Amino acid sequence: MLRPLVRPGTGGAAGTSRTARGSHAATGTRHLAAKAASLVLVAILAGCGGSPATGAPGSSPASTAAAPSSSVSSVHATASPTVEAPASASAPQGVQPPALTPALAARLAATLRRVRSADHLPGIQVVVGYRGGWTWSAHAGMADLATGQPVTNDTLFDAGSITKTFVATLTLQLVDEGVLRLDDPVTRWVTGVPGVTGVTIRELLDHTSGIDDPFEHPPLLDALGAHPRTAWTPARVLRYVGPRHFAPGRGWYYSNANYLLLGEIVQAATGQSVASLLRQRFLVPLGLSHTFLQGEQPVSGQAAHGYDSAPTGRPVDLSDGSGYLPFTSLATALGTAGALVTTAGDLARWAQALYGGDVLPPATLSTMLDVGLTRGLHPRWPYGLGVQEITYRGQISWGHSGLLSGFHAAMRYFPATGLTIVVLMNDDTVNPDAVVATLLDALEAGAPGAARPPASPAAAPASPTALPAPPSARP
């Protein structure tokens, strides 16, 4: 049986990056134990998955590398005067971003250096920037500890469930075009999957379908861990779906199966792969040249290895030598639920374009961002159609996070100011939202007099200053 990461609400506040871990160890050979113990098949955003359902009223063995130095952490940072975004991009009306002074840049770099040193991160990639303003990009550490290959701004990381923001946006475009409808029954497009009867496309998008998440259960986890170099298909993964948790629309339960089904629906409705549609509609037009959906298209570029330090306190390399992140079975099984690889720079551009209104019409974007339909179902955090709304220090953000074996990521856009913060790490034991909060504090402390966003609207529920740790799959 595989050991999970951390269950919801078991620690890891925003001021504390390293999260609590479960203690159940995997069994078997040393190679399989290292793989299985690290196989946290989450691919979910921090705070959305792994929570109980809530209702309405060549192959190389896993290796252990030396931990990164905690005394010296070099941060390489670059700044550009303008955000790389479509020509229509501009800062929110009436908001003037703070100046990127040498002092502010130094403060951000020092913050990142402290984070990496304190948490012994193998590698990290960060972008802080304003829509219509400046962008600060930084990286530190190693993409591959064994070879000493450093992280650069172009190093590919697995983004996990940030993938869902792309799939949700694609689905909504097809709805606008009349190819799909939000109230289409899933069975119009896909049959033979347990629990899909009566479920609509909207209920897949916002996780109110009640469909079980097979990545939470030992049979699938054990199968993926036993043969890490075996490629999987969505149809094979969906055979592991268990009984439905509640009637459609009667609760909120984060399930990766929802987004695997959306991928199957999109392909059935269009006759094209999700990867090709993403490239045609988003990646090429927005210049996201370092973003790829694994399993459906070739991946080009230097990639970070994923590491898990939980079993021994020393980083375990999860790579299987195939080029898939973190390894073949997990990447291909997650597919449209969490197999995207990308860079912090590409994700910053994506967040600014999507949430800034350059990708979807205003009415459609409003539908995506509407968290009112799920609020009464008590999700971990307010959730729309493939988007999470999180409040930091009274500031609302839109975005998503991703967590899976060896990688952890967060993409946050603050609509009141146009600020974007993206954090990508090749370690699955540190909460990236804690890093986002720390960078936000450094940004504000380093820019005295800069306009701060207004307080959260009354309709938005208050969030604690200390963000809970991200949840994960449970055995």
CATH class: Alpha Beta
Q: What count of structural domains? A: 1
Q: Low-confidence segments, ≥5 residues, pLDDT <50?
A: 1-52, 56-73, 82-88, 447-475
User: What is the average of the pLDDT values?
Assistant: 80
Order of helices and strands: HEEEHEEEEHHHHEHHEEEHEHHHEEEEH
User: What's the number of helices?
Assistant: 13
Task: Estimate percent helicity.
Answer: 25-40%
Described by strand count, sense and barrel closure, the largest sheet is:
8 strands, antiparallel
Task: Write the CATH architecture name.
Answer: 3-Layer(aba) Sandwich
What sort of overall outline do the alpha carbons produce when their principal axes are compared? globular
The CATH homologous superfamily: DD-peptidase/beta-lactamase superfamily
Strand segment tally: 16
| Rg, Å, rounded | 20 Å
**Helix vs. strand class:** alpha+beta
Tell me the β content.
15-25%
Q: What is the fold named in CATH at topology level?
A: Beta-lactamase
| First-residue to last-residue Cα separation | 7 Å
